[in-house]
Amino acid sequence: MRRVYLDHIRCGTVLLVVAYHVCYLFNGLGVPGGIPDAESIPLLDGMASIVYPWMMALLFAVAGMSARYSLQRRSGGGFLRERARKLLVPSTLGLLVLHWVTGYLNIWLGGALAYIPPALLYPICALSGIGPLWFVQMLFLFSAALLLLRRTGAADRLWAWGGRLRLPGLVLLAVPIFLASQVGNVPVLTMYRFGIYSAAFLIGYAVLSHERVQEQLERSRMPLLAAAALAGAGYALCFWGRDYTAPECLQSPLTNSYLWLAILAILGCGRRHWNRETARTRALCEAGYGFYLLHYPVLLAVCSALTVWLDLPVLWNYAIALAAGFALTAILYALLRRIPMIRFLVLGQSCRSTR
């Protein structure tokens, strides 16, 4: 049975990531990686800080659930081959084909082009063009580690235990989420949070993939939504207007409680309200992963041009960047998926398919 609502949550979150990156590139909170000297709108900075704690953790949790369902249909070897094509190839070879553009623009914006020897410019741009592909790289590592856990039998024991949890136990999983947020954090590159993201992936696989657990979340969706809103209000009172990637924010018990309640509420509401599909939503969901892979160099180019070469009102910058980001990414996706070898290297799609 295909759980359509998970496709909708995944796709909706990807679209949210695109909108978030517009706010991120223009941010005025000192979050590393934004465009230097860009003017921001404080309200939109605050909105970006509201979604940041749970946005990627939700994608990892859904990926863990999907990994469980995938391994029910294919062998471990088939699962790893599929993940290598879909995840590893775009996040490594794809850097050489497309994402060197991200590295080039970042170096240009930082004023460092003059200091790089011409012979080294392309490899340095490729290596520094990872951008949001960190998510894809980590997901491949977690998928490979999951196969090792399955070989020891630990993954199956965790899954059997996870199916026995009731709502209080599901809520209390905020504790291991908080503990995981304290470890595995790479200095400077704050997006590489191996602890909390691996925990979200494993909980998705071992706990949230159970039909009984999903039924409980659906029944309790309104209390969970109210609890997430209250936790979010408390989070906003503490961290509004501050660097939301700083350790004192990301490792706070309040932040991680809000994160986990938001994930449970979204899964419960999604199962109730987003479990039907149309031809349009199916096509959008099929394109969602491609949008994630392609959107950042497009957005970075658009936002850089708006900031460096034009002097528009700040609200126009946001509106144009968002509209152009979606439109140009859609056009780029439609083009690249029709070129067999490029489709494989950049999108991780089979050379024999245009899907």
Distance from N terminus to C terminus (CA atoms, Å) equals: 21 Å
Order of helices and strands: HHHHHHHHHHHHHHHH
Please outline the major beta sheet: none
Structural class: mainly alpha
Shape: globular
Oligomeric description of these chains: single chain
Mean pLDDT: 94
Number of continuous helical runs: 16
Strand content: under 5%
Task: Estimate percent helicity.
Answer: over 70%
Please tell me about this protein's structure.
- The chain is an all-alpha fold.
- The protein has helices at residues 4-25, 42-73, 76-109, 118-127, 134-152, 154-162, 167-172, 174-180, 194-208, 211-219, 221-239, 247-250, 253-273, 279-308, 314-336, 340-347.
- The protein is globular and about 60 Å long.
Write the SSE topology.
Elements: H1 4-25, H2 42-73, H3 76-109, H4 118-127, H5 134-152, H6 154-162, H7 167-172, H8 174-180, H9 194-208, H10 211-219, H11 221-239, H12 247-250, H13 253-273, H14 279-308, H15 314-336, H16 340-347
Keywords:
355 residues, single chain, mainly alpha
In brief, what are we looking at here?
With 355 residues, the protein is mainly α. It contains 16 helices and no strands. 75% of the residues lie in helices and 0% in strands.
